[in-house]
Amino acid sequence: MSFEFFIASRYLIRRRKGLFAFVTTTIAIAGITLGVGALIITLAVMSGFHAEIQRKILSIQAHVILGSKNSSGLNTSNYKELSEKVSSIKGVKATSPFIYSQIVLRNRESTTGAIIKGIDFSKEDKISDLKKYIVSGKWEKLDEGIVLGKTLAKSLNAFKGDEIVLISPAGIDSTLVSIPKMKMLKVTGIFESGMYDYDANLAYISIPNAQKLLDLGTNITAIGIKIDNIDKTELLSQLILKEAGPNHWVQTWQSLNRNLFSALKLEKLMMFIILTLIVLVASSNIISNLLLFTIEKVRDIGILSALGATKGNIYRIFMYEGFIMGGIGISLGTFIGCMISYIVNKFQIIKLPPDIYYLESLPVKLFWGDVILVIISAAIIIILSTIYPAKKAADTDPLDAIRYG
Fold first, then answer.
1. What's 297's DSSP letter?
2. HSE (CB half, 13 Å, CA atoms) of 382?
3. How many CA atoms are closer than 13 Å to the CA of 257, on its beta-carbon side?
4. What span, in angstroms and rounded, lies between the C-alpha atoms of 144 and 138?
């Protein structure tokens, strides 16, 4: 241990007498603790939101969607051939055809708009977790009717076994008026994904029922594709498009949800900047604390200089003084931030309104990269805050310090 660090630690331990000295030191350390802790918790919450929403989306959405530029979509003959081609690409795990459209659902006096998705139930569980989300009904019998999101079923006041009317915009045109096409289906199941947007707006039926309702003949909208590594989504999507040919298009889960994830990233960045200001403000307490300390210890500075201590030695003593206070604050803040993040994540103690936040409880995911970023940022602020008072102490004239100290 260097003598500069030893003196700095002794000064901090045996600090100025009186309540004022204790309060100013405590406030300086507490400010850093609060800022660092708040930063870690906030970044953990933002990362948790991002990770949980991504997990929910990928559990019910295909990683890559392949469709035809033909306005009528893919027909039965070419989508089967296309599925075989795509499945042969290394990295592709499974494919499943689907139909996607907006319709109106009616159950007795209740009417609401919804997104209908026609799927092949025998293949859907290979590209999504829909089977795991079924809370009412048997998977083997779901294709006989319609599967509603839990919130959608509640808004329709519909239960398993009820018959509801599906009203399609693909009406039958006459010379005077377009008559909407309707089909009655029994509710064979209800699913709950935990993501409000899906549970409140999405319903599933079989592909044959969707084709009849929407008057599509043998056509489908597109093919959903699951891959083995989502980090390679862009690369594999281009390989899939190349294999399919120029008359096709692809969309990835990132492109479909780009606005959502961009907003989350921007919000995380803005929260980091705003909360870093707390650490910056707290560091001003260290500056004022060290300046007061310099005034208090001016005689000691003179004695140390007379005994042979250089300006560099004095400078380092006061730098270490700031480092110790900042280090205690950063350590306490890191510990408190990590502990609170762990407890909130473990016990899910903070509940959220799902219609606003898409989720039912506050998700927290602590990335050590974020923790290290916070520690480094706080340390840089502490270092910069300590330079001026340390230089002020080092520039003190030793003779004046002894004479007037």
1. T
2. 27
3. 20
4. 11
Over its C-alpha atoms, the chain yields an Rg (Å, rounded) of 32
Amino acid (one-letter) located at 114: A
Tokens of 1: 């241990």
Residues forming a β-bridge with 164: 185
Residue 217: C-alpha distances to residues 95, 100, 185, 207, 213 (Å): 21, 14, 19, 11, 10
- The whole-angstrom separation of Cα 387 and Cα 400 is 22
**Cα–Cα distance measured from residue 19 to residue 348, given in angstroms and rounded to the nearest whole number:** 41
Q: What is the pLDDT of residues 52-79, one digit of tens each?
A: 888 888 999 999 999 988 877 787 777 8
- DSSP per-residue letters across 83-124: HHHHHTSTTEEEEEEEEEEEEEEEETTEEEEEEEEEE-HHHH
Q: Which two tokens stand for residue 354?
A: 């799902």
In this structure, are strands 178-191 and 134-136 parallel, antiparallel, or unpaired?
antiparallel
Domain boundaries, the chain: 3-57+260-404, 70-246
pLDDT digits (tens, 9 = 90+) for 217-268: 888 999 999 999 999 999 999 999 999 888 899 999 999 888 888 888 888 8
Q: Dig out the tokens for 162 from the structure.
A: 């009820």
